[in-house]
Amino acid sequence: MLVLSRKLGEKIVIDNEIFVTILDVRGDVVKLGVEAPKQVTVHREEIYKEIVASNQQAQQKVNTHPAVSDTLSKVGNLSKKVTPPKSNHNAKS
Question: What are 29-39's pLDDT values in tens digits?
Answer without folding.
Answer: 999 999 999 99
